[in-house]
Amino acid sequence: MTKRFLAIACLALAAPLQAQDFATSFDATEVAPGIYTLTGAEGKFGGGTISVLVGDEQIVLIDDAMVPTAQPILDAVTRLAGRAPDFVINTHIHGDHVGGNALMQENGAYVVAHDNIRKRLAADSKGAGGDGGLPIITFSDSVTFHVNGHEVFVFHVHHAHTDGDGVIHFRDQNVIHAGDVLFNKVFPYIDLDNGGSIEGFIKAQEKLIAISDDDTVLIAGHGDPVASKADVETNLAVLKDGRKLVKALVDEGKTEEEVLAANPLGKYHDDYSWSFITTERMTKTHYRDLTSE
Question: Which domains are present in the chain?
Answer without folding.
Answer: 3-229 (3.60.15.10)
